[in-house]
Amino acid sequence: MIEISASLTTPVEAFRSMGALLDAVGACIFSKDLLGRYTYVNRPMLALLGAQSVEAVLGREVGDYVDQQSADRIREHDLRVLHLGEEIEEEETNVFGATGEQRVFWTVKKPMHDAHGEVIGLCGVSTDITERKAIEAQLQEQRQLLLAVLNHIDAFVYMKDESRRYRFVNDKVAREWGIAAEEAVGKRDVEVMPLERADKFWELDQQVFAMGQPQIGEESFVGPDGRLVHHWSVKVPITYEGVPTLIGFSTDISEVVRLREQLREQAIRDALTGLFNRRHFNELAEKELARSRRHGHPTALVMLDIDHFKRINDTHGHPAGDTVLQRVAELLRAQMRLEDTPARVGGEEFALLLPRTDAAAASVLAERVRCAVREAEGLLPDGGRVTISLGVAVTQGEHKLEALYAAADAQLYRAKQSGRDRVCVV
Ligand SMILES: Nc1nc2c(ncn2[C@@H]2O[C@H](COP(=O)(O)OP(=O)(O)OP(=O)(O)O)[C@@H](O)[C@H]2O)c(=O)[nH]1
């Protein structure tokens, strides 16, 4: 408790009596008379003015210590306090004559009154906020830099909390939703996108909150134009303004996924007929044989070859030969069950994999295919007919693909040898 002695008659004397205490306050404290001359300064103020002693400052005026512009502004503030009785709270930037240093203050000035209520001067407290201002400016700069990065990066960046409310979205997200980025803050996911998509995104979000670990994954959803959109998303748990939140970075990889699927298709399909190629057919056949081994059911393999194909090429030209291959492929597809797999395994050689099919059923199918090709019209430009030969083999105990190939090939050879346009079965 600070007691001001009853014998002290003016506020300035009161200040002086508390000298040691006011010197210890980490702010500049001063008082001025009606002409703006210092009547009291504490030690920090003294240091700021660059003066040697209190006595050297008393009776002098601010213009003796700061540059002209700062002095004019301070005088103007002082006049408002002294003549209009205003209380002022303002930020001041002052340049000090002694050092030329520029410092920022938060200054509070109030009028001082005598016993009759007449203004006799002012007292003020100036807190040096130069460092705080510098830090604030630095933070603001960093924030702007961060925003510039987040808004120009080619990714959707967002922050979302556990109640599925967005806490931040970058410009790219806002543009997608057709609203301003600030508008999105506080909105729940279902307010800005269809429920189905919101639930899709929430699947990975939930894992982030449940595990407290970053989660990475592909997110696929139906876009506004009805096409599938694929995002590659990285979502990281953070605490934002004291609330568990995730920050997510999602990149549209739809084009990459389409290319990936295209490449995969190219890798497994024959370009001319669209049927599976030999390598992929072998993979599927190996799997089917493993299944048939486990369950003990038969699998049939039909090898078929277009008769005198070389002659077709030679007579009608290579493009016409290609058309025949395409038409035969279509006929095969049309004749097969859903679970059967046709493939082009060589130039004019095709294979059919028939799961759960014994020799009798495979022969029926092979015969149907043979007839379909033989009876098909318009395969050749001159209206001539195309025929095929087929060899059928069925797994027997061993279930080895090479053995099955060899057996079916042997039957195909037999069909060719015995006049073509026929089916031979083991
Ligand atoms: N148009 C076309 N011809 C192809 C293609 N791949 C292979 N061939 C041709 O297919 C013909 C196959 O002929 P061969 O193996 O002698 O058999 P073939 O003439 O069908 O006689 P058989 O099988 O004994 O009835 C060759 O002339 C190859 O050049 C292709 O993609 N397009």
TrEMBL record:
Catalyzed chemical reaction(s): 2 GTP = 3',3'-c-di-GMP + 2 diphosphate
One GO CC term, this protein: plasma membrane
Residue runs in coiled coils: none
Domain GGDEF: 297-426
InterPro entries recorded: Diguanylate_Cyclase, GGDEF_dom, Nucleotide_cyclase, PAS, PAS-assoc_C, PAS-like_dom_sf, PAS_4, Rev_trsase/Diguanyl_cyclase
Domain of life: Bacteria
EC numbers, comma separated: 2.7.7.65
Entry-linked SMART domains: GGDEF, PAS
PROSITE patterns xrefs: GGDEF, PAC, PAS
Group of enzyme by EC: transferase
PAS domain ranges (all copies): 14-91, 142-190
Gene3D superfamilies given in the database record: 3.30.70.270, PAS domain
Name of one Pfam family that matches: GGDEF
GO molecular function terms noted in the UniProt entry: diguanylate cyclase activity
Domain PAC: 89-141
NCBIfam families per record: GGDEF, sensory_box
Protein name: diguanylate cyclase
